Amino acid sequence: xxxxxxxxxxxxxxxxxxxxxxxxxxxxxxxxxxxxxxxxxxxxxxxxxxxxxxxxxxxxxxxxxxxxxxxxxxxxxxxxxxxxxxxxxxxxxxxxxxxxxxxxxxxxxxxxxxxxxxxxxxxxxxxxxxxxxxxxxxxxxxxxxxxxxxxxxxxxxxxxxxxxxxxxxxxxxxxxxxxxxxxxxxxxxxxxxxxxxxxxxxxxxxxxxxxxxxxxxxxxxxxxxxxxxxxxxxxxxxxxxxxxxxxxxxxxxxxxxxxxxxxxxx
Length: 266
Hints:
Number of domains: 2
Oligomer: single chain
Distance between the termini: 50 Å
Shape: globular
CATH topology of the largest domain: YmcC-like fold
CATH class of the largest domain: Mainly Beta
Structural class: mainly beta
């Protein structure tokens, strides 16, 4: 951790890349199916609660909106977390769809653009560094790797938070040391067997899960990620006739896991 932090602080001085443009959102979040990312997160209040999380993310599909101004990534997330309230490790798995919009814009306040052969295989880095009276924060956006490093420290708030990319594999290009979340083989198989039909749908959809596992709740989001409908299925059936025609994301909740998939309303 200290080594990475030190490298980030000196990289601008040693490896600054002259004449490079700020990365756009599309360049930062340029993923392909099969890309894998491992993250390590730690949140600590100086005299109180804490939170640890390990995340393994894999991109399994991508598609664009009709106007090609939004890219949707379908991904799986396997994670383990531990908190001061629940100090034992909890395992979670979900399939999600996330939209990335404003692909040609530059949303960050960047103070430096550089490359460092020790970080992310020399991929272009956009850094935001802010130092204030009682602390500092650092954000690193990396080409093709998203927000790869977030650091926040404040004496006043008595908070320390770091969330960092520790490993990636992009089409065989690897960097870092894998941090594997274990114990998910069976739940990954089960979650992938959630079935929604018909899809596209006009009026009603039926959801099935392995072993006749009951679906407890369904949440439907629009293309902006806004919650549009929450329903408790009757006999695993949900009325979607009130939805306008278009593409939605549906979250299916069971007692054992959640799964998110694309839903097309006719």
